[in-house]
UniProtKB/TrEMBL annotation:
Residues 36-55 have a biased composition (Low complexity). It is found in: Membrane. InterPro entries: EmrE-like (IPR037185), Nuc_sug_transpt (IPR007271). Keywords: Membrane, Transmembrane, Transmembrane helix. Residues 1-70 are annotated as: Disordered. This is UDP-galactose translocator. Residues 1-13 have a biased composition (Polar residues). GO terms for cellular component: Golgi membrane. It holds the Pfam family Nuc_sug_transp. It comes from Seminavis robusta. GO terms for molecular function: pyrimidine nucleotide-sugar transmembrane transporter activity. SUPFAM superfamilies: Multidrug resistance efflux transporter EmrE (SSF103481). The keyword Membrane applies. The chain crosses the membrane at residues 88-110, 171-189, 195-216, 228-245, 257-278, 298-315, 321-344, 379-397.
């Protein structure tokens, strides 16, 4: 206090002390003089906010400043990293991640073992016989799982399986689609080279996403679309040893390139449609059958298709069920396991995640093929493999939510039946607890 209003002399130590305070608050001497000397500056909340430093030592930016002018604070970076890490943990946790990892391993081992069987051992069995035996194994295993999951108030296994046979029309349509894809791949490979076929085959990544957006009404963020395009290009580059060979790119002698190209494009479109169709049946069908029941229906419907192919080709080079070995039987087991894992991956995830798992298996199987069987592994393949992994991470780490599928209304059983005939006519749609 200075009651006489007599000017107090300023000491040099006070000046140095004031400069230290200004430097600690991030303000220069010139800034302090402008703020103090300006007569229009008032102690309003906005002006005080402009002069008050933030808690982390940086100048506070007025709310009127644009987002581009605002500096990124430490708290914003921490929030972004926290959200990304939580999204990663959400993807890694639960049954979904376990199923996808096992599916990736199954695809990799199946590919390497098939390459060993056909490329090294030169076995002469028919691939249609291997697929048929795999479907029979899958059907038997699914029936066993159904028997273990039947509730006490549900009919016996024979009645339940008969009901599944009677209601397997949707799965029979899916089996016909798979059969058509088999024929189209045969037609395309007769008219175009293996390299051209490989290039067009990568389009199934985009056809699956497109069918998901159209049929299931799902909306994906632009970040995920970019990740899928990057994934497709990465897989294409990874296949460079195939399409990079001039002999593989040349059209087959006497073939029609237009017919071959049309066949492979129809095949990849059907592949995307089949994946989304299967997902829609599993998640939104009014009957709400269990995953093992749907696998039983699909295996049962696929057996006639593969049997027809086997009889048409009269078996392999060694005749019907000739040339079989322990390796070919293991391929049938792995094929059956792959069908079950695909259904589980769609149930706990979706068709896009299933595609990501099978795409990642391409990288893993190529590495195993290189170190175990001496397959190619070039610098371009290694770079493309890194691109595929980054694309998968970009897709899975995107925090934009995808709308879940809502099951259609369930057709309730009419419990007002009075006669025994009415009771027998009521559909047996009691849910299994296999889920």
């Amino acid at each position: 206090m200075n009651p006489s209003n007599t000017p107090v002399p300023i000491q040099s130590s006070d000046i140095h002390h004031g400069k230290d305070i200004l430097r600690s608050t991030g303000m220069s001497d010139g800034t302090a003089r402008r703020v103090t000397a300006s007569p229009s500056t008032k102690s309003t909340p906005t002006a005080m906010a402009a002069k008050t430093p933030s808690s982390d030592g940086a100048n506070h930016v007025p709310a009127s400043a644009s987002k581009a002018d605002r500096p990124v604070t430490t708290s914003q970076i921490q929030t972004y990293l926290s959200v990304t890490f939580k999204n990663f943990l959400g993807f890694m946790s639960g049954m979904k991640m376990l199923v996808l990892v096992i599916l990736c391993l199954q695809n990799s081992i199946f590919t390497v073992l098939r390459r060993y069987s056909q490329g090294v051992l030169r076995e002469s069995y028919s691939k249609h016989e291997v697929l048929l035996v795999g479907e029979i194994i899958k059907m038997a295993f699914s029936a066993w799982m159904i028997s273990k999951s039947l509730p006490e108030d549900c009919p016996d296994l024979k009645t339940r399986l008969q009901y599944l046979v009677d209601t397997s029309k949707k799965m029979f349509i899916l089996a016909l689609i798979y059969g058509a894809m088999n024929i189209l791949s045969f037609v395309s490979l007769r008219n175009i080279g293996a390299g051209m076929f490989t290039i067009f085959a990568q389009c199934k990544i985009m056809t699956t996403a497109t069918c998901s957006a159209i049929i299931l009404k799902r909306s994906y963020s632009w970040a995920r679309w970019r990740a899928l395009i990057s994934l497709m290009m990465g897989v294409l580059l990874f296949s460079e040893p195939i399409w990079g060979n001039p002999d593989n790119m040349a059209a087959n002698e006497g073939g029609n390139a237009l017919v071959g190209t049309a066949a492979v494009l129809i095949e990849v479109t059907l592949s995307g449609f089949a994946s989304i169709y299967f997902e829609k049946v599993i998640k939104t069908d009014p009957l709400q059958l269990g995953i093992w029941e749907r696998n039983f229906q699909l295996a049962l419907s696929s057996c006639p298709v593969y049997l027809a192919f086997m009889l048409f080709n009269r078996g392999g080079e060694a005749g019907l069920f000739g040339g079989w070995s322990l390796v070919s039987f293991m391929l049938s087991l792995l094929g059956a396991a792959g069908g079950l894992l695909v259904a589980l991956s769609i149930k706990y995830g979706d068709s896009i995640l299933k595609t990501l798992a099978t795409t990642g298996a391409i990288i893993l199987s190529s590495l195993l093929d290189h170190y175990l069987l001496g397959g190619p592994l070039t610098a371009v393949m290694m770079i493309a493999g890194v691109q595929v992994i980054i694309s998968i991470c970009n897709y899975t780490f995107d925090a934009t939510p995808v709308e879940p599928l809502v099951p259609e209304p369930v057709n309730k059983i009419d419990l007002s039946a009075k006669t025994q005939d009415d009771v027998e006519e009521a559909p047996l749609i009691s849910k299994s607890t296999s889920e």
